[in-house]
Design brief:
The chain is α/β, with parallel strands linked by helices. Helix content is 31%, strand content 21%.
C-alpha cells in the first residue's frame, strides 16, 4: 500500500477518466491497495455539481468494472471523491483549486495531477498550476501524469518538452504508456532476465526475425477527428510497438531502477538504423480499411466514418521493417504491424528461430520447412508458446508441428488492469515503466522520415477489406519468400510433411 496522497484528475468527465482511471482506482480501493486517507478530486465542466458528478461516476463504474458493483466498496470509494467544476482555461479556476487542496485535513499534501486531456492543453494547464503555486513542493511532492501522444512529431515533442522544463523537473513527469503496465509485457523482462535458458539463443546466431503485432477488429468509433490527426503510425507504432521492441531487444539493466531501465531501452532505440528518406517505401507500408465484414458484421469504409475527410489518406494500418545495428541483433529484421478493422483482436510478439544449417528432412517435397517459434501472447490471450517439429505418430517418418504452452495466469490468480499497476507506481514514485523524454525523442526520430513521406497523398496507400489481416503489400517487407506474418497464436499451417528416403 502506498502512502496517502491527493489525486487530481483534469478532464474527469472525458472517456479516459470514466472508462479507465475511475474503474482502476475503484479496483485498487476494493483490493485494499489505496491508503485510507487518499483523496480523489475530479475536475471538469460538464457536470454542475458533486451530486450530478457522482451519478456519472457510478454509471461509469457500472459499465467498466470487473463483475458486479460492490455497494460497500462504492460507498467507501465515493467518500474519497469530490468534484470541482471549472474551466481549465480560466485562471480563476486554479485559485479555487488551490483553496480546495489547501484544506489540510481533507487533502494530503502530496499530490498527483493527472492530465486526462488532449496534449495541446498540457502547457497552458501547467503554466496556470505554476502561477497558482500549485506545483510548489514546500509541503509535499508534486507529480504530473501525461498521456500519449507526447507531441505530434519530433519538433513538436521538443517544443512541448521545453515548456514542461520551465515548470517541472524530469523526475516529476510521468509519461504514461498503458501497454507497459500489462502483465504480459512486464513478464517479458522477467522471462528474459530471470532465466538463463534462453539467453544463449537470444541473438542473431539463433533468431531469424522478430514480429511485434497489434491488430484489432474495432474501427475508429467516434474518434474520426482525432484519428485523422494521428493515424496508426503515431497512435500505435511510435509509442506501444517501439516500447515493446525495446523490451525484447534490450540488454540486461544493472537493476530495475528507472534510470538503469531507461538507459538500456534508449541504447536500443539509438541503435535502430535510420530509414532513408528516399527508401521509405522499402521499409514501411501504409493501408486504410475499406468496407467489409468483421466478425460477422458488415462495416463501412474508413472514409465513410464520422468526421473523416472524403479523400482521407490517413493510415489505419502501418507496417515497418526495422534493423538494430548492434552486436546482438545485426542482420535480424524487426517487423512491426498494427491495424484497425482486422480479422480479430490480437497482440503478440512472435520470435522466429533460424532453421538448421543442414535440413535433415531436405528430401521433403515441402519447399519451406517449418521453423521453431516462440510466441508471447499479450492480449486477448496471455501466454507463451514454443513451437517445435516432432515426428508424427505412425510407421512412416513424417513430421508435424507441436507446441509447449504456458499460461502467464493461473485460474485463481488476481487480474489487475494496466492502469491499476501504473497508478500505484505513480503514487509510489516509481518511474521505471514510464517513458523518459530521451526515449520519446528517439522514437520520433525513427518514424519521422515515414511521417514526412506519408504527409502527402500518394499511390502508396493500400486499401484492405475490413475483416482481413491488412494489405498484401505488407508481405513485401519480408526479404525471404518463406517468411510470413504470424496473425494469431494458432499453428502456422505448414502442415504435416512426409520425408522420403530417410
Amino acid at each position: 500500500m502506498t502512502d496517502p496522497c491527493s489525486i487530481v484528475i483534469f478532464g474527469a468527465t472525458g472517456d479516459l477518466a470514466r472508462s479507465k482511471l475511475l474503474p482502476a482506482l475503484y479496483h485498487l480501493d476494493a483490493a485494499g491497495r489505496l491508503a485510507r486517507d487518499t483523496r480523489i478530486l475530479a475536475c471538469g465542466r460538464r457536470q454542475p455539481d458533486r451530486n450530478a458528478w457522482m451519478t456519472v461516476m457510478r454509471n461509469a463504474l457500472a459499465d467498466s468494472v470487473r463483475g458486479e458493483l460492490d455497494e460497500e466498496v462504492v460507498s467507501r470509494f465515493a467518500k474519497r471523491v469530490d468534484y470541482l467544476r471549472g474551466d481549465l482555461r480560466d485562471a480563476r479556476f486554479y485559485a479555487s483549486l488551490r483553496g480546495t487542496l489547501d484544506q489540510i485535513h481533507e487533502y494530503p499534501a502530496d499530490t498527483v495531477f493527472y492530465m486526462a486531456l488532449t496534449p495541446s492543453d498540457y502547457a497552458d494547464v501547467l503554466e496556470n498550476l505554476d502561477d497558482a503555486k500549485l506545483l510548489d513542493e514546500s509541503r509535499g511532492w508534486r507529480r504530473v501524469v501525461l498521456e500519449k501522444p507526447f507531441g505530434n512529431d519530433l519538433p513538436s515533442a521538443r517544443a512541448l518538452q521545453q515548456k514542461l522544463a520551465q515548470h517541472l523537473r524530469e523526475d516529476q513527469i510521468f509519461r504514461i504508456d498503458h501497454y507497459l503496465g500489462k502483465e504480459t509485457v512486464r513478464n517479458i523482462l522477467v522471462f528474459r532476465f530471470g532465466n538463463v535458458l534462453m539467453e544463449p539463443l537470444w541473438n542473431r546466431n539463433s533468431i531469424d526475425h522478430i514480429q511485434i503485432i497489434h491488430a484489432e477488429p474495432q474501427g475508429i468509433g467516434g474518434r474520426g477527428a482525432t484519428y485523422e490527426a494521428s493515424g496508426a503510425l503515431r497512435d500505435m507504432v511510435q509509442s506501444h510497438l517501439l516500447q515493446l521492441l525495446t523490451f525484447v531487444a534490450m540488454e540486461s539493466p544493472v537493476s530495475m531502477a528507472a534510470e538503469a531501465l531507461h538507459a538500456e531501452k534508449l541504447k536500443v532505440l539509438k541503435s535502430i538504423r535510420p530509414i532513408p528518406d528516399d527508401k521509405v517505401a522499402q521499409f514501411a507500408i501504409r493501408g486504410q480499411y475499406a468496407a467489409g465484414t468483421v466478425m460477422g458484421d458488415k462495416v463501412i469504409d474508413y472514409r465513410s466514418e464520422q468526421a473523416v475527410a472524403a479523400g482521407s489518406h490517413t493510415e489505419t494500418f502501418a507496417a515497418l521493417r526495422l534493423h538494430i545495428d548492434n552486436w546482438r541483433w545485426a542482420g535480424v529484421p524487426f517487423l512491426l504491424r498494427t491495424g484497425k478493422r482486422m480479422a480479430e483482436k490480437q497482440a503478440l510478439v512472435a520470435i522466429c528461430f533460424k532453421q538448421p544449417p543442414q535440413q535433415f528432412f531436405r528430401a521433403s517435397h515441402v519447399p519451406c520447412e517449418a521453423s521453431n517459434w516462440l510466441l508471447i501472447g499479450i492480449q486477448p490471450h496471455e501466454c507463451m508458446r514454443l513451437e517445435m517439429t516432432v515426428k508424427a505418430p505412425g510407421e512412416a517418418l513424417a513430421t508435424r508441428q507441436t507446441s509447449l504452452d504456458a499460461s502467464f495466469r493461473k485460474a485463481d490468480d488476481p487480474f489487475n488492469d494496466a492502469y491499476e499497476e501504473l497508478l500505484l507506481d505513480i503514487m509510489g514514485g516509481d518511474r521505471s515503466l514510464f517513458l523518459s523524454y530521451q526515449e520519446v525523442e528517439q522514437a520520433w526520430r525513427i518514424i519521422d522520415p515515414v511521417l514526412q513521406a506519408w504527409s502527402q497523398p500518394g499511390d502508396d496507400l493500400h486499401f484492405y477489406p475490413a475483416g482481413s489481416w491488412g494489405p498484401s503489400a505488407a508481405d513485401g517487407l519480408f526479404e525471404d519468400p518463406c517468411r510470413f506474418w504470424r496473425n494469431t497464436l494458432e499453428p502456422c499451417g505448414c502442415g504435416t510433411r512426409k520425408t522420403q528416403g530417410v
